[in-house]
Amino acid sequence: MKVFITGASSGIGEALALEYAKRHSNNNTIIGIAARRSEHLQNLQSTLQSRYNIQCAIYPLDVRDSHAMANAAADFIQHYGAPNVLVACAGVSCGTLTEHVEDIAAFKAVMDINVLGLVHTFQPFIASMRAAAKQGENAQLVGIASVAGIRGLPGAGAYSASKAAAISYLESLRVEMAADNIAVTTIAPGYIRTPMTAINQYKMPFLMDADVAATKFINAIEHKRRFVVIPWQMGWVARLMRFIPPFLWDFAMKKAPHKKRLDWDWL
Ligand SMILES: NC(=O)c1ccc[n+]([C@@H]2O[C@H](COP(=O)([O-])OP(=O)(O)OC[C@H]3O[C@@H](n4cnc5c(N)ncnc54)[C@H](OP(=O)(O)O)[C@@H]3O)[C@@H](O)[C@H]2O)c1
Q1: Which of 4, 6, 9 best tests ligand 1's pocket when mutated (most atoms within 8 Å of CB)?
Q2: Residue 152: other Cβ atoms inside 10 A
Q3: Residue of minimum CA distance from atom 7 in ligand 1
Q4: Domain extents in the chain
Q5: Could you give the percent of the chain with pLDDT greater than 90?
Q6: DSSP letters for 165-214
Q7: What is the pLDDT of residues 20-34, one digit of tens each?
Q8: Which residues of the chain, if any, have pLDDT below 70?
Q9: CA separation for the pair 267, 258 (Å, rounded)
Q10: What is the structure's pLDDT at 255?
Q11: What value does the CA radius of gyration of the chain take, rounded to a whole number of Å?
Q12: What is the CATH T-level fold of the domain 2-266, as seen in this structure?
């Protein structure tokens, strides 16, 4: 089993790496992990090796850098072969308001990381995954979107737009890859307890712990789900969100809390 996960230095990505290791310990498994904070990746690597006897390759990089991502993919493929599962989990979230000139940079960074980051992650792996799929190996691309991409959330224009783009992009990719037997799974999480949501000072319905979420994400991946919302209760909310008319959406969102705006340069 070969798995490659971006955004593995914290939150959902880290929980996915741990859950994959738990399920496949001592099983000739290799997990590649990527993110910018190399010390977090090193800690996770030690945990995977000492606790689960899992071989782990680390790639400190920024998913905005397509060359760095291509180098990481080339290294992984050369040493271990094409991944069976490639999870593009790296992402950022912050409040943005169009009226603030300084938020333009935040809009750009969020779109770059959450949308182009997916393309940079998948592109350099596809040829080798296609060849592996032809040999009968499992080959699956997984993108982490969000329920926030289903309708525009006030105060989160950049994040909602990026996740809406991610959902559509992943759908295009799924249809494109079908003839090559490469499955594409889109996961749209609701609220998961991670550093990303720790700063939210409002009520988060159906908030789920990252380790619990990771088991459900991997179950969905193993079942080759095309599009799934986790937790399931949020799936019903998402269905409702999709179908209510704009005037009702405006009314429902009138007093919705806004995500905190941050200095763009932390992105
Ligand atoms: N938590 C939720 O409720 C929730 C809900 C819906 C969707 N999601 C999505 O789930 C994914 C993971 O989020 P999380 O909740 O686990 O948040 P998190 O704990 O903040 O993790 C985000 C991960 O993405 C990585 N990352 C961010 N920018 C990056 C960049 N430019 N290059 C490489 N890696 C980058 C971070 O690592 P470095 O900082 O070390 O680079 C970190 O590992 C995101 O795509 C997020 O949008 C989360």
Answers
A1: 9
A2: 15
A3: 146
A4: 2-266
A5: 92
A6: HHHHHHHHHHHHHHTTT-EEEEEEE--EESHHHHT--S--TT-EEHHHHH
A7: 999 998 779 999 999
A8: 263-266
A9: 19
A10: 86
A11: 18
A12: Rossmann fold (3.40.50)
